[in-house]
Design a protein that fits this description.
Radius of gyration: 24 Å
Strand content: 15-25%
Number of strands: 15
Distance between the termini: 74 Å
């Protein structure tokens, strides 16, 4: 009887092996014996397993070894870790960080070098998906997509849905303002300051959202910003305008993400229940002088409402850090920047001409004053982020690269900086990883194709030598980047001399 059972078990074992699905690959990739770190719900259970890609899709992922044949490249992942490609949900694909139009025209070779390196720099730090929040032209999209190596790029249309003459339209000279912001919202209070050729019917929330949808956008970007610095009292959207934008966005299958960083702005948007607030709360207004370890009750109540309504919160801590870096003499000498910023551009930043914005911004302040002011603002921003993290808020990763015409926010490097600042704010490493993968994918309705490692999803994969659930430095310990099934060694993404 014992002999019969042994034969039966052996037969069953071999039968199961024979019946294992055969994967016949033509353009395959097989990553074996690797620690797989992925989630669909924020809970991680890493395991050593195997992942198979055919062309640009994942076709197998499991603890058991696959049965494969055909044409494929195999990578031994022993001792390594793989995660989904990172998603930066707040970038601006600008011409060159820190340059104005006359600089761009004056230094065409530097511009060419930057545009060639910029997509590679995002990939260097593992960002395989970018969402351009703000205006972008077809020409710029096409120029980016023609690069031989690049992240996937999504956008929010040819311009954001700003109210007429409000932020950020106010930065553009009046003679070009409306041409450069074709998706502005008409407001009767601004009627005298809007050229007659722009008809109100073409600039209602409904008309604007339809235009944005037809441009191929995945989201609508709007703004609640009354001004800062020397600029103040800018027109603001009314509750009816923002409510209508939200309704029309959802009717078109789009997400509404709104710029705001003040207590007033966050309170206004939390009340309406927009999908995403595209900046952290760092302008505490009447509470700006309270201790940096104390969260006022009014702010807690407002954050509780955001948590209750599951409003996405994008901290963008690197905005504050990037501006503060303009007075830091050591910033431009970092060895890390030399790997992702062309040498000629780095040298230009150090010139009198390249320091133009730092001088404009801080002409009346000394270094100690800048560090004190920005340190206080950053401490408040981090306190808010920690509260949201501790209370299960919906945290979305976004770096706002660049936040303005500054060299402090460099492609890829700025995202890595943001990740480290989030850890400094005491956000757990598992929540940081989720914010830049599955949370962003779900928030922007992209989770059917990216955001996790699963069969049928796009093969955007990062291989690391450190565990990102244990060490924030893992994001600078990337060994290989897989984008659409194509393997790239990290060193091949560095600036070439």
């Amino acid at each position: 009887m014992k002999k019969i059972l042994t034969i039966l078990l052996t037969t069953i074992l071999f039968s199961c092996q024979d019946n294992k699905e055969q994967l016949n690959l033509t353009e395959g990739l097989y990553i074996s014996n690797v620690t797989i770190i992925s989630t669909e719900d924020g809970n991680y259970s890493p395991y050593i397993g195997h992942l198979v890609v055919e062309k640009d899709k994942i076709v197998y992922i499991d603890k058991n070894e696959p049965n494969i044949s055909g044409t494929f490249e195999q990578i031994d992942g022993t001792g390594k870790f793989i995660i989904p490609g990172l998603i930066d949900s707040h970038v601006h694909i600008t011409d060159v960080q820190g340059m104005l139009q006359h600089h761009i025209e004056k230094y065409p070779e530097i511009v060419k070098e930057f545009n060639s390196q910029m997509p590679r720099s995002y990939l260097y730090y593992g960002f395989t998906t970018l969402i351009n929040l703000g205006g972008i032209s077809d020409e710029r999209i096409n120029s980016f997509n023609k690069q031989p190596v690049k992240p996937d790029l999504y956008h929010t249309g040819y311009s954001g849905a700003a109210v007429a003459n409000g932020y950020p339209m106010n930065f553009t000279p009046e003679e070009f303002r409306f041409e450069f912001a074709p998706n502005f919202i008409y407001m009767e209070s601004q009627a005298e300051n809007i050229p007659d050729k722009y008809k109100p019917a073409n600039h209602t929330p409904k008309a604007v959202v339809n235009r944005i949808k037809n441009s191929g956008a995945i989201a609508v970007k709007s703004y609640y910003e009354s001004g800062f610095g020397r600029i103040s009292n800018l027109p603001l959207p009314t509750k009816s305008i923002m409510t209508e934008l939200l309704k029309e966005s959802h009717a078109n299958g789009l997400v509404l993400t709104v710029h705001a960083n003040s207590l007033e702005g966050h309170s206004f948007l939390a009340d309406i229940g927009v999908d995403i607030i595209a900046h952290g709360l760092w302008s505490w207004e009447k509470y700006k002088d309270v201790p940096t370890d104390s969260l006022p009750l009014e702010i807690k109540k407002m954050l509780d409402l955001q948590i209750q309504k599951r409003i996405g919160y994008t901290p963008t801590l690197a905005v504050i850090a990037g501006e503060g870096a303009l007075v830091d003499n050591k910033f431009l000498n970092q060895s890390a920047l030399k790997k992702v910023v062309p040498k000629n551009l780095l040298e230009w930043y150090k010139t009198e001409e390249g320091q133009w914005f730092a001088k404009d911004l801080f002409s009346e302040s000394n270094v100690e004053e800048v560090h004190k002011i920005y340190g206080n603002v950053q401490a408040h921003a981090m306190l808010v982020l920690k509260y949201l993290s501790d209370n299960n808020g919906l945290i979305l990763f976004g770096s706002d690269t660049p936040s303005g015409p500054i060299y402090g926010n460099q492609p890829g490097h700025n995202g890595y900086w943001e990740l480290k600042l989030m850890e400094e704010a005491k956000v757990p490493l598992n929540k940081i990883l989720s914010s830049a993968t599955i949370n962003n994918a779900k928030a922007f309705h992209l989770d059917s194709s990216i955001g996790s490692l699963d069969i049928g999803k796009k093969a955007n994969i990062i291989m690391m030598t450190k565990n990102p659930l244990m060490d924030i430095e893992a994001y600078d310990a990337i060994e290989k980047v897989v984008i659409g099934g194509k393997i790239i060694k990290r060193e091949d993404l560095e600036v070439k001399e």
